[in-house]
Design brief:
single chain; 405 residues; alpha+beta; Phosphorylase Kinase, domain 1; Transferase(Phosphotransferase), domain 1; 2 domains; 6-stranded antiparallel β-sheet; two-stranded antiparallel sheet; 14 strands; globular
Length: 405
């Protein structure tokens, strides 16, 4: 069968097609894949009228705005480098929730996607929320802003301390909060996750209502929730060189030896101290001074440990530090051995409780990560013996064994 001849193009038709191609070249159409990943000109995307970002990448909104056809903005709850947290009314479930709105900036958007991945897995491992990690209710992309919905919680431990003029928590509440924190992080570790950014700002009270006596606020219920999994890292993933907020950073991170789950345990030790005494144990912003403070509080670094340091802060295994210098005198004045931190007015049974707490912190401050206290061991420490739910709640009793999949 003879082939059909192609119809010859008319001159006008040819010129029309050529002009279309030329127009495409002139417009320099963006690569759709590049735009999707945030590398292209995202501003060319069409947005509904009224949806816009400010110069820093925050979503511009006002009270009464409706996001995703579901969440009505009621007010602000907080702001961070990542974006903002907003109080919203869920029109579907008829309840108030907290909505974390991430900046329309590639690095923060990517970090939010990683956090969503971690939260999704934790939600599968713990659907009932018995391990004190905040639960993700919903997530979506709102015109370049990743949004994550959470249950409404109270103030952070840090904000409560600050609003209370840094008055320490009662030892009974320190015990409960410390146990629940160990309980939550142990759940993460059992599921091969390291939080890497444990600090009082990332520990929220479930309800921060309080009683006040003699000008001192005492939270009614010290139950906590662990939040902010934006830096959480699975064991098999790439480990960044530096993690954790400065004051809660483990020595192996500062010395660039390499870190794993024990770096979370060191951070917990710092937090327990801060809740009990109302002040940061390592108040510094410089690495060498930070290591000097550790030696002042805990003792000298073992040579076998300091010899592995990748940073030049040691000379023949000894920290290169002048205790007679101005900075040295500052460290001597503001840091002291752990046992000396127990207030002098603590006597009898109360002093025994403090000594148990200091014993727990001391074991969390063992320099060698491989010898540092593990969280299943911490949960069995004598400091927690007086908890009224110890041995009664199945969720707490199983904390050292459950949670893994």
């Amino acid at each position: 069968m003879p082939r059909k001849r192609k119809r010859p193009r008319e001159e006008d038709e040819f010129s029309e097609t050529t002009s279309k191609r030329r127009r495409w070249d002139q417009d320099k159409r963006p690569n759709p894949w590049a735009v999707w990943n945030g590398f292209g000109p995202r501003e060319r995307r069409s947005k509904p009228p009224g949806v816009q970002d400010d110069d820093e990448g925050h979503l511009v909104y006002k009270s009464g705005d409706l996001l995703q056809g579901r969440y009505e903005v009621k007010g602000d709850l907080g702001e961070g480098t990542f974006g903002k947290v907003v109080k919203v009314l869920d029109k579907f479930d008829h309840r108030t929730v907290a909505l974390k709105i991430i900046k329309n900036v590639p690095k923060y958007r990517d970090a939010a996607k990683l956090e969503i991945n971690v939260l999704s897995k934790l939600g599968k491992y713990d659907p009932s929320g018995k391990y004190q990690c905040v639960g993700m209710l919903d997530y979506f992309d709102f015109h370049g802003h990743m949004c994550i919905a959470f249950e409404m919680l109270g103030k952070s431990v840090f904000d409560f301390l600050k609003d209370n003029n840094y008055h320490p928590f009662p030892i009974e509440q320190v015990r409960q909060m410390s146990y629940e924190l160990c309980h939550a992080v142990n759940f993460l570790h059992k599921n091969r996750v390291t939080h890497t950014d444990l600090k009082p700002e990332n520990i929220l009270f479930r309800n921060s209502s309080f009683d006040e006596k003699d000008g001192v606020k005492v939270v009614k219920n010290a139950e906590i929730r662990l939040i902010d999994f934006g830096s959480a890292t699975f064991n098999h993933e790439h480990h960044s060189l530096i993690v954790s907020t400065r004051h809660y950073r483990a020595p192996e991170v500062i010395m660039e030896i390499g870190w794993a789950q024990p770096c979370d345990v060191w951070s917990i030790g710092c937090i327990v101290f801060e809740m009990a005494l109302g002040k940061t144990i390592f108040q510094t912003h410089e690495n060498r001074e930070h290591l000097a403070m550790m030696e002042r509080v805990v003792g000298r670094f073992p040579t076998r440990f300091s010899d592995r340091s990748k940073v030049k802060y040691f000379r023949r295994g000894v920290l290169d530090w002048d205790p007679g210098s101005v900075n040295g005198q500052f460290v001597k004045k503001n840091c002291k051995p752990l046992l000396d931190s127990i207030p002098e007015d603590k006597v009898g049974d109360e002093k025994d409780e403090w000594e148990d707490m200091v014993s727990l912190i001391r074991k969390m401050f063992i320099y060698e990560p491989s010898r540092r206290l593990t969280l299943p061991e911490a949960l069995r420490h004598p400091f927690f013996d007086k908890l009224r739910f110890r041995g009664k709640s199945s969720s707490y009793r199983s904390s050292g064994r459950s949670g893994s999949r």
